[in-house]
Amino acid sequence: MNNPIKIAVDAMGGENSPDKIIRGIEIHNKNSNNIFYNIFGDENLIIPLIKKTRLKTSDYKINHTQNFIKDEDSPLSAAKKGKDTSMWLSIESLKNQDSDAIVSAGNTGALFVIAKLNLKMIEKIDKPALSALWPNKNGMNVVLDLGANIECSEKNLVDFSLMGSALHKSLFDKEEAKVALLNIGSEELKGNSIIKNTYQMLNENNNSLFKFEGYIEGNHIMDGKVNVIVTDGFTGNIALKTAEGTANFITSELKYALNSSIMGKISTLLNISNLRKFKNKLDPRLYNGAILLGLDKPVIKSHGATDEVGFANSLKVCEKIIKGNLIDKIKKNII
Amino acid sequence: MNNPIKIAVDAMGGENSPDKIIRGIEIHNKNSNNIFYNIFGDENLIIPLIKKTRLKTSDYKINHTQNFIKDEDSPLSAAKKGKDTSMWLSIESLKNQDSDAIVSAGNTGALFVIAKLNLKMIEKIDKPALSALWPNKNGMNVVLDLGANIECSEKNLVDFSLMGSALHKSLFDKEEAKVALLNIGSEELKGNSIIKNTYQMLNENNNSLFKFEGYIEGNHIMDGKVNVIVTDGFTGNIALKTAEGTANFITSELKYALNSSIMGKISTLLNISNLRKFKNKLDPRLYNGAILLGLDKPVIKSHGATDEVGFANSLKVCEKIIKGNLIDKIKKNII
């Protein structure tokens, strides 16, 4: 048996933690082999929760600390109070080679700053990017940057194309990575000069990692013709959140429509298995987890409001990233 | 009886024109009073279509031309071939005071360029903006800019706030206009310097037209707490199209789910009136029509792919804008 994959888990961040974290570990553990969990947090809370699970003591280690970073802490104050918080210690365990990847459901800004303070950038990459999964008709897109960098240079966007493709290949190794640049459709002025220059650079860039497919407009993100969507952090954040708001609006209108008469309720009951399939396909827990790319270790952010199933999926993303040699893929292909 | 409102109608642009245009006029005419349609296009096509309607000859005038701008024409080549096209002539009829507003389902870029060539800007406004309606939980948002200006200054964004509010008040006169600036939620770096400066300017700007509500993130656009969403044209275009793509994705997944078994089909039939209500609420024809703001006459763009119902709604938008004195509202409040 190979050495186990070691995942550092910040048990204290997000809603209903550490409860959902420990239950998420149990779910992930049932469906995976040869994983070791380095759990960081308050053992007084964690031990009673672990006792309720079927985790074996050889599967995990609890690294005790009572300090943790709150959701409302600013990244700066988080970094200051940092060194004995569960988030800091779990990231530090990557630096010390005690873990291979880290996942936290805590404060995004703090995670970002503390990771940058503790970990090295991959050589030749100037800026880290926040990426996430986003469903399309044929599978999943990787979309980046989602807010780490408000302004991006041509070089940054080319790096993001490469890092996003490496991530897609690590997660879905049978698929070809196809990159598109998010742009607008106005005929007169197709994008700003940075986007146009990036287009040229990607067009001339021959690499074995991805195929460049040109521009994509917002309404085609989910068509499934490409699977790596590259943009600056401002635009990417607006696009992702607008999609989230639209999905919430439509599903709440639908729920209202289906419940607004007795006939509606009865037929919805008849129809429940189909609607459940629909719901499952759109379940945001399936693609829970943002991935910070550009550092020399994988840093995964689980959504603060997700539940144990969502957190287990973030652990799965960690596992796939390590097995898929994400960091090596980036290092080999960076220009 | 007052003088009629005169709407210039480019009958030749978009899919299935002039058929849907003439049928759209008939629908609008049934539900409105005292409107006169100045129709521009090929009378050989238009007259037979009008004969099938109940329109009275006193309700319209056909201004014959056989030339028209195609969807695939570049704005520049459209402007060059322009002067005897249906689009150019219908805009010119605003300049000549023969019409009060113009609506076209044709080439957006061409409409934009030809309108700018023929019409004056409202004094003190530097850039026109493209705005559209977007549903929220309580009614409708006005969102702008949607692609006319890739880069915007603080002054532009303040102007857009004012023009968007004037449009909202013209369309929904009983509601208070509430402005928000579209921004990202990253705690570290809340937006770029232009957005931050605009925030300051809007915060200090006392006016009777709108209330400034601060920043809004993409996932809250449809919450209904504000109703005028202001952003630059690049971000606005990406947001609108991403919302459109997300809505299409979800409704096609839903359709598939509801039709994927016999039980599903039966219960969908039982449920049809509820689903129809749902569909009606989200019907994009209801908010069909982008409005170009900043010129001293109202220019309305109907979606090229809409049908006669959608086109009739664009005519309704024209009518409301004129009755609501949109241009006067902007002129009175501009700083």
List the helices and strands and how they pair.
The structure is a homodimer of 335-residue chains.
Chain A: E1 5-10, H1 19-30, E2 35-41, H2 43-51, E3 60-64, H3 75-81, H4 86-95, E4 101-104, H5 108-118, E5 129-136, E6 139-144, H6 154-171, E7 177-182, H7 193-204, E8 210-216, E9 228-230, H8 233-258, H9 262-270, H10 272-282, E10 290-293, E11 299-301, H11 308-323, H12 326-333
Parallel strand pairs in A: 1-2, 1-4, 2-3, 4-11, 6-9, 7-8, 7-9
Antiparallel strand pairs in A: 5-6, 5-10, 10-11
Overall description:
The structure is a homodimer of 335-residue chains. Chain A starts with a strand and ends with a helix. Helices cover 44% and strands 18% of the residues of chain A. With 335 residues, chain A is α/β, with parallel strands linked by helices. Chain A is built from 12 helices and 11 strands. The first copy, chain A, has an 11-stranded mixed sheet with strand order 3-2-1-4-11-10-5-6-9-7-8, sandwiched between helices. In chain A, α3 packs across α5. Chain A folds into 2 domains: 153 residues, Isopropylmalate Dehydrogenase (3-Layer(aba) Sandwich), CATH 3.40.718; 162 residues, Isopropylmalate Dehydrogenase, CATH 3.40.718.10. The first copy, chain A, is globular. At the A-B interface, α5, α8, α9 and α10 of A face α5, α8, α9 and α10 of B.
